[in-house]
Amino acid sequence: MARPPMTTDEVRALHTELSNWGRWGDDDQLGALNFITPAMRAAAAAGVRSGRTVSCARSLPTQPAVDNPTPVAHHMIGTATEGGGADYFAIAPHGYATSHIDALCHIFRDDQLYNGYPSTAVTAHGALQLGIHHLASGVVGRGVLLDIPRLRDVEALAPGEPIFPEDLEEASSRAGLEVGCGDVLLVRTGRWPWRATHGPWDPHQALAGLDASCLAWLHRREVAVLGSDGVSDVVPSRVPEIRLPIHSVAIPTMGVHLLDNLDLEALAVACSEEQRWSFLLTVAPLVLWRGTASPVNPIAMF
After folding, report:
1. Which DSSP state fits 153?
2. From the CB of residue 123, how many other CB atoms can be counted at a distance below 10 Å?
3. pLDDT below 50 — which residues of the chain?
4. Are 246 and 215 in contact (CB under 8 A)?
5. Alpha carbon separation from 246 to 18, 55, 185, 226, 276 (Å, rounded)
6. pLDDT tens sequence across 101-140
């Protein structure tokens, strides 16, 4: 049964209750990625058994659609005529189409970034604090998939369908694991099978995702990174005046990087076949100096 919606004041109070500001020092640039220790990375790598690898990214979306108003521009600047193949491409990574990771400078809270940096640090020349280049060494650790359509015995969640903490708990239990400190949590909604069946729609109007009530759950478990085949937030948010509460609290308050618009279909199949819903996950953002995001191709290894 659905929970009653959180109020605007309740969500705003989370900026105090769930804050990680100062937890790793006044000059911290990594936020909740600090939860992932070298020992955790080694343990995740030691858990590899079959060596099977799976991509969690969509193909770069070059075709315009209602859910992709700024498609990736791909031009050939080298062909048989020039004697060799060469490409030029340009990407606006934010939005609802490209698989990307948000830097901690992406979302402001009361004119401040995560850890209290001023929003004026995001300039016309890039982000002077919390840029995506701080992730140049990548994100490597234990990935966990919680497959909510599998939990509800459906192919996909309908656009606008919320996910609650109870769903995350039950999905964890059924997977035989506990989401914990330093995990990279991936939540499948089945967005792309729904799109394949029903066609594209405007995700600004409706998208399955996490209800705002999941924020305290994520904070309590000290999740390092959160990802989804949507944008983690349910749309509409069910919270008056706050369009994307997961983004609005996780990034600037908790310091949690978000992975948006992943393709988790092949990963869900692999988890079912391998009968394990945790794996070594590697995310390697482009080293874009002072960037607010990067397209990514996360790789899961079993």
Report:
1. T
2. 9
3. none
4. yes
5. 12, 25, 14, 10, 27
6. 999 999 999 999 999 999 999 999 999 999 999 999 999 9
Say what the pTM is: 0.97
Cα distances (angstroms) measured from residue 232 to each of 46, 102, 126? 29, 12, 25
CB 273 within 8 A of CB 238: no
Q: DSSP secondary structure string, 26-65?
A: TT-SSGGGGG--HHHHHHHHHT--S--EEE--PPP--S-B
Rounded Cα–Cα distance for residues 135 and 259 (Å): 13
Q: Is 140 helix (H, G, I), strand (E, B) or coil?
A: strand
User: Cβ neighbours of residue 169 under 8 Å, at least 6 residues apart?
Assistant: 217
User: What DSSP element (H or E) covers 87?
Assistant: strand 86-90
Pairing label, strands 139-147, 184-188: parallel
- The backbone region for 139, taken as left when phi is positive above 0, alpha when psi lies in -120 to 50, beta otherwise, is beta
Question: Contact 206/236 with Cβ under 8 angstroms?
Answer: yes
Q: Are strands 299-301 and 53-55 parallel, antiparallel or unpaired?
A: antiparallel
Tokens, residue 268: 């869900």
Domains and CATH numbers, the chain: 8-301 (3.50.30.50)
CA–CA separation, 78 vs 6, rounded Å?
A: 54
